[in-house]
Amino acid sequence: MAHWAQIDENNVVVEILVGDNNDPSEGYDWLVENIGGTWVKTSYNTKGGKHYNPETGELSEDQSKAFRKNYAQIGFTYNEEIDGFISPKPAESWILNKDTGLWEAPVPYPEGTDLYVWDESSVSWVLES
């Protein structure tokens, strides 16, 4: 199956449709001719720039299948610079990892079993209350 993300004038994903990889009549040309807009192909099995086996959920041996950093979702942005889909920025201080297309906190998540939440005012992780 081929997955397609429709993006608006700001490159924000507004719709996702699925087509048949083996049927050109359900591909990019069909979407543009019948629905209109701008469409970008996305990989359902790619997250953080890595491809995962759809049957096992484990990391695929063939990483050439990794495509556009992350599977597009409504509200994500297609970033042309990194040729990938990125989620909305979770906090102002977070930094985009251009290799994975994922946002990273400016300080690492604490080790251990306790649960933490991000506190933007202190730019740190705090124990969940």
Structural class: mainly beta
Instruction: Name the average pLDDT.
Output: 93
Unreliable residue stretches:
none
Radius of gyration: 17 Å
The domain count comes to 2
Strand content: 25-35%
Question: Would you count the extended β strands for me?
Answer: 11
The largest sheet has its strands arranged as 2-1-3
Helix fraction bin: under 10%
- H-E order: EEHEEEEEEEEE
From the spread of the alpha carbons, the general shape counts as globular
Discrete helix count: 1
Tell me the distance between the termini: 43 Å
Q: Biggest sheet: strands, sense, closure?
A: 3 strands, antiparallel
Question: Can you lay out the helices and strands and say which pair or pack?
Answer:
Blueprint: E1 2-7, E2 13-19, H1 28-34, E3 38-42, E4 46-47, E5 50-51, E6 77-79, E7 84-86, E8 95-97, E9 102-104, E10 116-119, E11 124-127
Antiparallel strand pairs: 1-2, 1-3, 4-5, 6-7, 8-9, 10-11
Description:
The chain has 129 residues and is mostly beta strands. The chain has 2 domains: 1-88, no CATH class; 89-129, no CATH class. The chain has one helix at 28-34; strands at 2-7, 13-19, 38-42, 46-47, 50-51, 77-79, 84-86, 95-97, 102-104, 116-119, 124-127. A 3-stranded antiparallel sheet has the order 2-1-3, covered by helices on one side. It is globular, with a radius of gyration of 17 Å. The mean pLDDT is 93.
